[in-house]
TrEMBL record:
It comes from the Bacteria. It is found in: Cell outer membrane. Keywords: Membrane, Signal, Transmembrane, Transmembrane beta strand. Residues 11-205 form the Outer membrane protein beta-barrel domain. This is Putatice virulence related protein PagC. It comes from Xenorhabdus mauleonii. Transmembrane segments: none annotated. Residues 1-24 form the signal peptide.
Length: 205
């Protein structure tokens, strides 16, 4: 009788351990909304994709991909002073249209505090692309004198970083919110800071 109970207990414990190992690995796939403010530019908006791999440890791995874009128009007009009396131009005006695109790819560790809450950090690279179409115009008393059109294509690749919190209100459901930061050199050598957030929902399996 004692041997039977011991054997039964061993089988139960073995089955529990096997079940724990068999279901220890889990994957979380999530999608969310991303928004960032680019210095000297308007907000850019897009999507964030989020993948997490967990094993039998409180430490796991997270990967993140973000795509955002935005556009804006600029215009201005001022009096023109060439310093030369022969010029009859009186006004200078300019109009510009800018399109911006941002991509980032990051990865980093996550730490599960308990069954519901995890924190994570990310590090990687961001690629920023700015296309600009600028039209300049010199005007006199009786209308336009000369005009010039310029197109610009600027690209910048820089470090990107992020951090956030992931919550599992249910075992197979996740909600996350995070910060993402980077910078871009798209006008001269000036660094334009990029700071934003992303929020999303995911499925854990």
């Amino acid at each position: 009788m004692v041997m039977k109970k011991a054997l039964l207990a061993t089988l139960v414990v073995s089955g529990f351990m096997y079940g724990s190992l068999a279901y220890a690995d889990s994957h979380t796939v999530a999608i969310g909304y991303a928004q960032s403010k680019v210095q000297d530019f308007k907000n850019i908006r897009g999507v964030n994709l989020h993948y997490r791999y967990e094993w039998d440890s409180p430490v796991s791995i997270i990967g993140s991909f973000t795509y955002m874009k935005g556009s804006e128009n600029h215009s201005g007009r001022r009096e023109f002073d060439s310093g030369r009396g022969a010029m009859d131009a009186k006004y200078y005006s300019a109009r510009g249209h800018l399109d911006g695109k941002y991509y980032s790819l990051m990865a980093g560790p996550a730490y599960r505090i308990n069954d519901y809450v995890s924190i994570y950090g990310l590090l990687g690279f961001a690629h920023t692309k700015i296309d600009a179409d600028i039209k300049e115009l010199l005007e006199g008393e009786h209308g336009p004198i000369s005009s010039r059109r310029t197109s610009l294509d600027k690209k910048s690749t820089d470090f990107a970083y992020g951090a956030g919190v992931e919550v599992n209100p249910m075992p197979n459901f996740s909600v996350y919110a995070g910060y993402e930061g980077s910078s871009a050199k798209v006008v001269g050598n000036k660094n334009h800071g990029i700071n934003g957030f992303n929020i999303g929902i995911g499925y854990r399996f």
